[in-house]
């Protein structure tokens, strides 16, 4: 299923955080994973810009040895600094999001205590390979990002990120002509690997394709609100 941005923006129907009463349930947690350099930080930044006026958002970044992704988000001022936390994962980024999630859970709890009223926490994994997935104990939903420059055969190769993530993003479509990638084949292969799970093609740097991702996030929030009603 290809996501198109034709429906009303669901964020329009979610009341802003400030107008909701407190005693609120825990914020929705969405993980963003995918290979090194596929555009996870750029997507987190774009989502924050798109949704920060509607939702109360915080971000946890996972880097292997540094705090670079958090610093990039801070430099771009996508959110106030107290809403961005970095976890240094050491050698194995997938361990910190799948096997021993304690450092990430602690970061999430710290943010909840510090900010108080959060709707959404975006958790960006360190760049890894096609097998990295998030523990369901850490996130409610996961987005997997691959990029066109990584090779147009990646959707065909599969792997749990490509086949089972709740949303697959194929980023850097602007590079397709330069790297000889066949976007139609990528989309077709992704859709056949994923059944009814959605796929969206983006060029995040050109701000193209962010609206369908933002709408998808807002739908998950709306579902969460309905489930609790
Ligand atoms: N051409 C192009 N470049 C992009 C796009 N999205 C991101 N980039 C660039 O790709 C590089 C990597 O992007 P990031 O957002 O840092 O990727 P990442 O997945 O967070 O990287 P790691 O955290 O190192 O795994 C940066 O130089 C971005 O500017 C895009 O849509 N098109």
Structure description:
This protein is α/β, with parallel strands linked by helices and 229 residues long. The protein has one domain (27-228): P-loop containing nucleotide triphosphate hydrolases (Rossmann fold, 3-Layer(aba) Sandwich), CATH 3.40.50.300. Helices cover 37% and strands 17% of the residues. It is built from nine helices and seven strands; from the N terminus they run βαβαβααββααβααβα. The protein has helices at residues 40-51, 68-75, 93-99, 102-115, 154-157, 160-164, 176-179, 183-194, 210-228; strands at residues 28-33, 57-63, 84-88, 120-124, 141-147, 167-171, 199-201. Helix 2 (68-75) links the parallel strand 2 (57-63) and strand 3 (84-88). Bound molecules: guanosine-5'-triphosphate.
Largest sheet: 7 strands, parallel
Query: What is the name of the CATH superfamily?
Result: P-loop containing nucleotide triphosphate hydrolases
Rounded mean pLDDT score = 88
| Proportion of beta-strand residues | 15-25%
- Spatial shape: globular
Report the order of strands and helices: EHEHEHHEEHHEHHEH
User: Judging by the overall fold, what is the CATH architecture?
Assistant: 3-Layer(aba) Sandwich
Low-confidence stretches: 15-22
Ends apart, CA distance between termini: 28 Å
Q: Care to count the β-strands?
A: 7
The CATH topology comes to: Rossmann fold
- Going by helix content, strand content and strand pairing, the class is alpha/beta
Topology (SSEs and partners):
Elements: E1 28-33, H1 40-51, E2 57-63, H2 68-75, E3 84-88, H3 93-99, H4 102-115, E4 120-124, E5 141-147, H5 154-157, H6 160-164, E6 167-171, H7 176-179, H8 183-194, E7 199-201, H9 210-228
Helix pairs in contact: 1-9
The chain binds guanosine-5'-triphosphate (GTP).
Residues 36-42, 69, 127, 171-172, 174-175, 203-205 line the site of guanosine-5'-triphosphate (GTP).
Keywords: Chaperone, Cytoplasm, GTP-binding, Nickel insertion, Nucleotide-binding
Binding site for GTP: 34-41
Family: Belongs to the SIMIBI class G3E GTPase family. UreG subfamily.
